[in-house]
TrEMBL record:
This is Hepatocyte growth factor. Residues 60-146 form the Apple domain. It comes from Ornithorhynchus anatinus (Duckbill platypus). InterPro entries: Kringle, Kringle-like, Kringle_CS, Kringle_sf, Pan_app, Serine_protease_kringle. Residues 150-229 form the Kringle domain. It comes from the Eukaryota. Keywords: Disulfide bond, Kringle. Pfam families: Kringle (PF00051), PAN_1 (PF00024). The gene is HGF.
Length: 232
């Protein structure tokens, strides 16, 4: 890169577009002392700058899922949904499930047919009622960790597990019910927060962690006793 330079900025108009070896000694020294550090810095940054968030997201999508080898899921309830499509890699399957891309439901898991290179996305997981696991060597099952973990991270805003009792043992009121407590936390108003059934949730990311309205008319709401996930 230093072998051939445009030198008009030096004030020496007689030496424009000359090879470096033909430039006056002072000009060569000026160019090398100014450009070498710049080039070295550029090389250093190209090596040390971490990948962009988009790149990290693409690489880390599968980390959102728990893999169970040689297992798929069978549903016995018609109210549960699934969709299948041929895709070449589990990464592509995971990306669609993570973003709910092109799916008419909220994806909780997918099974990958290794022989046919086919994704099967599910609106359910292995913890859903009316669903059973099936041993099948052709498939690997991938379930979103947020839906199956029994602990919370931080304030528990991403928790989507199935705990449905408060810390004092009171059964939670369903989110789509106004009995015994009226409220504004309707599933339709908090899309993406998974306000399903009567599971403990923290839709606003408040201090205290996941909570619910209770089935006790005397206790409007209470936090749930869900431990923090281990950082070890």
């Amino acid at each position: 890169m230093l072998a051939y330079l445009v030198t008009g900025c030096t004030g020496d108009t007689s030496s424009k577009h000359l090879p470096l070896r033909d430039l006056p000694a002072k000009t060569r020294i000026m160019w090398t002392t100014q450009l070498v550090p710049v080039l070295m810095l550029h090389l250093f940054l190209s090596i040390t700058i971490p990948p962009s968030e988009a790149q990290k997201q693409r690489r880390s999508t599968l980390h959102e899922f728990k893999k169970t080898a040689e297992i798929t899921l069978i549903k016995v309830d018609r109210a549960l949904y699934s969709k299948a499509k041929k895709l070449n890699t589990t990464e592509l399957c995971a990306h669609r499930c993570s973003k709910n891309k092109g799916l008419p439901f909220s994806c909780k898991a997918f099974a990958f047919d290794k022989a046919l290179k086919r994704c099967h996305w599910f609106s359910f997981n292995s913890m859903t009622n009316a669903v059973r696991k099936k041993q099948d060597h052709a498939f690997d099952l991938y379930e979103k960790k947020d839906y199956i973990r029994n602990c919370i991270i931080g304030k528990g805003g991403s928790y989507k597990g199935t705990v449905s009792v408060t810390k004092s043992g009171i059964k939670c009121q369903p989110w789509d019910s106004m009995i015994p407590h009226e409220h504004g936390f309707l599933p339709s108003s908090y899309r993406g927060k998974d306000l399903q059934e009567n599971y403990c949730r923290n839709p606003r990311g408040e201090e205290g962690g996941p909570w619910c309205f209770t089935s006790n008319p005397e206790v409007r709401h209470e936090v749930c006793d869900i431990p923090q996930c281990s950082t070890g």
